[in-house]
Amino acid sequence: MQAYELPQLISQRADSDKLYLEFLKVTDLSMGLYVLPAGGTDPQSPHTEDEVYYIVSGRAQIKVADENLAVQVGSIVYVAKNVEHRFHSIEEELTVIVFFAPAEYSNKS
């Protein structure tokens, strides 16, 4: 079993000075904590794996293909592999738990 506490993950991610902290990776799943500052830019590109975003805190918009959606605490967004997407119009620091299935970069050629 592996178990995690959100405050500890938030601290580890902050100490890493990176936007994304992967904290779990097994063959069929990976998880990470993604934090974007208010007014920030989301630099990500489409992934080769399906992913789910769970918004822990903050408010923003996410553009998935040609659709825009407002996200806030408790929002859950599924993004299919290889689909262009990014967060934008970040009003409050955005803290997101990210789930990849299979694990991130598993399908990358």
Task: Explain what you see.
There is one protein chain. This protein has 109 residues and is mainly β. The protein has one domain (6-101): Jelly Rolls. It is built from one helix and six strands; from the N terminus they run H-E-E-E-E-E-E. The protein has one helix at 6-16; strands at 20-26, 29-36, 50-64, 67-71, 76-79, 85-101. Strands 1, 2, 3, 4, 5 and 6 form a six-stranded antiparallel β-sheet that branches. Strand 1 (20-26) and strand 2 form a beta hairpin. The longest helix has 11 residues, at 6-16. The termini are far apart. The model has no long low-confidence stretch (mean pLDDT 96).
Task: Give a brief outline of the structure.
With 109 residues, the protein is mostly beta strands. Helix content is 10%, strand content 51%.
Helix-strand pattern:
HEEEEEE
Shape: globular
Oligomer: single chain
Secondary structure tally: strands: 6
Tell me the helix content: 10-25%
According to CATH, what is the topology?
Jelly Rolls
Radius of gyration: 13 Å
- Unreliable sequence segments: none
What is the highest CATH level, the class? Mainly Beta
CATH-derived architecture = Sandwich
Overall mean confidence score, pLDDT: 96
Our count of helices gives: 1
Q: How many domain units?
A: 1
Note the beta-strand portion.
over 45%
Largest sheet: 6 strands, antiparallel
Name of the CATH homologous superfamily? Jelly Rolls
- Our measurement of the CA-to-CA distance between the termini, rounded to an integer number of angstroms, reads 30 Å
Task: Look at the helices and sheets and give the structural class.
Answer: mainly beta
